[in-house]
Amino acid sequence: MSKKKILTLNNISVAGLDRLPRDQYEVSSDLNHPDAVLLRSYNLHEWPVPASVHAIGRAGAGVNNIPVSKMTEVGIAVFNAPGANANAVKELVVAGMLMACRNLGPAWEFSRSREGDDASINSQVEEGKKNFVGFELPGKTLGVFGLGAIGVQVANAAIALGMRVIGYDPSITVKRAWQLSSQAEQALSVDDLLSRVDFVTFHVPLIDATRNMINRESLKIMKQGVVILNFARKGIVDDDAVCEALETGKVYGYVCDFPSNQLKNRRGVITLPHLGASTNEAEENCAVMVADQVRDYLENGNVSNSVNFPEVNLPRNGQYRMAIVNANVPNMVGQISTDLGKAGINILDMLNKSRGDLAYTLVDLDKEVSQKLVTEIERIHGVIRVRLL
């Protein structure tokens, strides 16, 4: 059996690549006709995806750099690694709150810029420290937008620090709800949350509904001296509006992962160089998770943590398995079953699930499927891809 080919478009942690046995996989940043692609930040929107590709795995959570709709149309599963970098981002959010409320950025710069002998520096420090008086976290209220893997960890950490937490996520999953501390309160709406918090942090993707969630109008209903944190995506916060609010004191501090000329050197702003998931542990966790998911899909057809395919996990029943990607239309399974029956092939097990306009079917069979039969099934109107596993 020929090796499956994995094309890497960014540096992927060795911990993840080691999940792909070299006797079964060829992994390289330079190869033709790959079965799957692994990447981090590489922009696929302008990249001609080879027809041989069945899966794309992003070693991270966001998939803004991948044309997901286009991949869905051609039957390519797109995987990500939600939660693998959650602890890294959680720690940075907590650090951001502490940096903002204790004025650590300007205080550090002040200390570094002192000159003279030690006695003179000590005198300057004692005189200047009054300019950096801050406040403490216990008793303050943190609003958390988005209660996925990261948001839940942030909420729980803040509660452990003695903060009150109000969360908002109309699509929170049962799994995340179980993980969230019972002390966290539920906001009834976006405005309900914004009007009640001293700090607010965002852990949502950048889509039309989340673009400029913090803007001139929303700032009007927020408390005086609020601290805004954005380690999610640039564009969720309207920087123009926040900069104006910093001048009036409406916003006490703005901490984000997205530097710009507008934000740098501005009083009350701390910008970091996109450090959200930049830890060795997070990079390894993301790479391992996405490598495992892509491997399971290529070898067994199972789907876990895909952003465009339904979750599918079917234990193997027999030696022969077929995976079919098709439009979510009536009688598709019936047509496939009919073709299999005409060929004298019995179905041992089957699992069919849909997600929006896309459906995905795994079928375990008692006999090997010929290429002729594969071609016949591919000709069924609405069938996008057929794979033998």
Describe the structure.
This protein is of the alpha/beta class. It has three domains: 117 residues, NAD(P)-binding Rossmann-like Domain (Rossmann fold, 3-Layer(aba) Sandwich); 147 residues, 3-Layer(aba) Sandwich (Rossmann fold), CATH 3.40.50.720; 78 residues, ACT domain (Alpha-Beta Plaits, 2-Layer Sandwich). Strand 9, helix 9 and strand 10 form a beta-alpha-beta unit. Helix 3 crosses helix 6. The longest helix is centred in the C-terminal third of the chain and has 21 residues. The radius of gyration is 26 Å and the shape is elongated. 39% of the residues are buried.
Q: How would you name the oligomeric state of the polypeptide chains in this document?
A: single chain
CATH first level of the largest domain = Alpha Beta
Helix and strand sequence: EHEEEHEHHHEHEHEHEHEHEEHEHEEHE
Task: Work out the strand percent.
Answer: 15-25%
**Strand element count:** 16
Under CATH, the topology of the largest domain can be stated as Rossmann fold
Morphology: elongated
Mean pLDDT: 95
> Structural class, from secondary structure content?
alpha/beta
Strand order of the largest sheet: 8-7-6-9-10-11-12
Q: Give the proportion of residues in helices.
A: 25-40%
Question: Architecture of the largest domain in CATH?
Answer: 3-Layer(aba) Sandwich
What's the end-to-end separation, in Å? Answer: 12 Å
Under CATH, the homologous superfamily of the largest domain reads NAD(P)-binding Rossmann-like Domain
Total separate domains: 3
**SS summary, helix count:** 13
